[in-house]
Write a structure and sequence with these properties.
Length: about 250
């Protein structure tokens, strides 16, 4: 298959994960590395990047026109898929994974690959935690919720304070960018930003490095081709955690 060309998939099942998150199961599998993404075409609406949560699923948070349209789709309806694209997470024997909200989606296949020694899982409240049972089967899961409804009361980043980060080969992070910026500050303080990887989400038009819509200031690195997973040392003096750009190219503060 030419990854630059869209293939049509049928939806076999739609699973409700939370009030705003659904997992879409396809009738086709894709060979990918954990952290890679596909461009998802919703006919008549838009094409948007989505991380694969398994070889035949994407896990989607309702957040805009395209995802709202997806939530209206059911079994037997069609989507277009291009990819997978980009770089995934580096595998290691002792990986610490840190997931916030729907950021657990690209980290689930990493955990299933038997790479994750410890996973920190966070959400605003217990009902919004993703994949708890599945993750419990393959790694040691520590939980934090903003409201204290399950696990530690507070942000998921507070769980890092009780860990010896030096025992891990790699640290893999995905979630809201303000959360990930806090992680970056903590690992920079300990001198391990270079072994920490962050999955970025940016507006994309092409997904293959041509249009430049997903470039990161000031380096010009393209999220679609040079990422979406970046080493923390590449992000220290960047826009990361401060702003991103919308479809018109205007800055949008985080």
């Amino acid at each position: 298959m030419n990854d630059d060309l869209s293939v049509t998939v049928s939806i076999l099942r739609v699973k409700k994960e939370t009030s705003l998150i659904r997992t879409f199961v396809f009738d086709r599998t894709f060979s990918f590395s954990p952290g890679q993404f596909v461009m998802v075409w919703i006919p008549g609406v838009d094409e948007i990047p989505m991380a694969l949560s398994s070889e035949n699923t994407i896990t989607v948070q309702k957040a805009g026109d395209a995802t709202t349209a997806m939530f209206a789709l059911g079994t037997g309806e069609k989507l277009g898929i291009r990819g997978p694209f980009g770089n995934g997470f580096t595998k290691g024997e002792k990986v610490l994974a840190i997931a916030g909200g729907v950021g657990a989606a690209p980290l689930l296949p990493l955990a299933r690959a038997d790479c994750v020694m410890t996973l920190l899982l966070g959400a605003r409240t217990e009902s919004e935690l993703l994949f708890v049972d599945q993750l419990d089967e393959c790694t040691d899961v520590l939980i934090a919720t903003d409201d204290g409804s399950l696990g530690q009361h507070g942000f998921v980043t507070t769980l890092m304070d009780d860990l010896n980060l030096g025992v891990y080969d790699r640290i893999a992070v995905c979630g809201p960018e303000t959360m990930m910026r806090t992680v970056l500050a903590k690992v920079e303080e300990k001198g391990i930003a270079h072994k920490t990887e962050f999955s970025l989400h940016r507006y994309m038009k092409c997904g293959v490095g041509i249009c430049g819509s997903c470039c990161v200031d000031p380096s010009g690195l393209r999220v679609c081709r040079d990422g979406p997973v970046f080493s923390g040392d590449l992000l220290l003096k960047s826009e990361f955690g401060h702003y991103m750009r919308d479809a018109s190219g205007r800055k949008k503060n985080l």
